[in-house]
């Protein structure tokens, strides 16, 4: 009996131990859960509900451009648009679903839309919409290699792409292509940045999409803008271009713009004024904060700051004057082309500027080209050619030659030369355009455009000892001397105009004595029409080389289209340098220029003697070699003549300066 009692008491003891152990374990578990909930509960809850604030900059319309009389040149035209904004976690299938729904509501099947769809886009779409058939493109042994990690996902996808047949692609319907065109636009955007799916949306499309936004996640209706040019194609080569939202930021300046807060699909200025004044025109973008969960899904959107369109530019151009100048160029070019031996003539340029401020009043250029679409000959804007192309300009630079002679003491205001041909041993005679000009001083040498006077001046600058038909030695540094002085007028150097891509011109590399003589009459180095305008302005105002400007003012934008905002910055005249020389030296050159146009015998007297605005100036004719678009048609460059004219008026108190260039006649 005692043994039985002992056994009975042994079993409950073990059970008690077991129950105690279970109790301890449950107690530890409860304690652990308590610590997790009470001590770390808020931390875990915050981690689960963690959000991220992502700030997105929404683009705004660019600033406007006005002419000096406040006539609108460039504006923005609002248009209805449909955008798509994908989140950081949006899947391609989700985008496809939205694209299919959107394709039923809007039209996206124009020739331009479908032209953007490439063969690769079609293949990607086919794989996306034919998953089972796409999987069947992969062979069993390739799947085995995939399982063995000898092939990765990218390799399998490339195999599928390669094995899609032309027949399978041709099975895509018009509806498929329209959906694909929409999907392509949606996928080209960046996360949380609105991407334009369609511009120029019809009122019906805008309304029906607006009514169905709930079934179109990420889609929105908005107002977009396009640049509007009030004067059509006039000055378009100067106003510049703006990128579209599809291309966005130019690749070559991507990092530059991203570092300044731009989005990749922002529209920016690509050339000339739009590019030069990008910081002014692009405006202050609206800042929108997207609050997302850790999966990238947008939970809320808050506007941080409202956007403001770009600031406005008031240009120095007078559009009425520009219109009149361009009309004259077109008429005169058309007349000239009717004359014999003008097959290479295809362009002409005119610059008008204020010689006292540097403001460019008109920057006109025309070029005759063949229209690729119609095959017809048309005359297109080539205003940029005034500072991006250069030519031998001839005698119009003789004012700089005379002043260089004065400054180097090669000649004095009393110096006279008899106009007779110059003959250097072993070369052809160099003479003036007309025989019998007689003995001339500097003023009359300009009046009748004596080449010989300029030759003798250049010889003296080079410290030469000229004798007829004998060798001539000139100091090689004479080229540098003349070029350095010419550059004080803006010839052969950048004028400083507030536009990109300005050309300096070409400098001859050889330094034979005869070439210095050619240089003195404008038949060696090349110059732009804008350089000529700066040069003659410097003579007109008595020696101040002013920086040419295309922008006069920067103004604050206002909301109403018929109002102009207050002046934010008025650009003052900038004197780049003061030309070396005595006032009386400039007086003599100015008098020579006056005689050219106002006295009988002057080279421009016949065209200007009746002008009541009392002009002064200098004509130029240069022998040159053709190097234009038709150069490939010739074994050797054909010989041509370049015509130029520099002038200002009135001669006593100049208000306007002009440079004209007609090359390749």
Could you explain how this protein is built, in words?
Strands 2, 3, 4, 5, 8, 15 and 16 form a seven-stranded mixed sheet that branches. The protein has three domains: 51-83 and 221-315 and 551-567, Penicillin-binding protein 2a (Domain 2) (Alpha-Beta Complex); 91-190, Arc Repressor Mutant, subunit A, CATH 1.10.10.1230; 326-543 and 579-662, Beta-lactamase (3-Layer(aba) Sandwich). By secondary structure, it is an alpha+beta fold. It is 37% helix and 20% strand. Helix 3 crosses helix 10 (174-187), helix 19 (442-448) runs parallel beside helix 24 (583-598) and helix 20 (451-461) crosses helix 22 (513-520). The model is unreliable at 1-7 and 51-57 (pLDDT under 50).
Q: Determine Rg (CA atoms, Å).
A: 38 Å
CATH names the topology of the largest domain as: Beta-lactamase
CATH superfamily of the largest domain: DD-peptidase/beta-lactamase superfamily
Which residues form runs of ≥5 with pLDDT under 50? 1-7, 51-57
Mean pLDDT across all residues, rounded? 89
Family: Belongs to the transpeptidase family.
GO molecular function: penicillin binding; peptidoglycan L,D-transpeptidase activity; serine-type D-Ala-D-Ala carboxypeptidase activity
GO cellular component, one term: plasma membrane
Enzyme class: hydrolase
Provide a quick synopsis of the model:
With 665 residues, the chain is an alpha+beta fold.
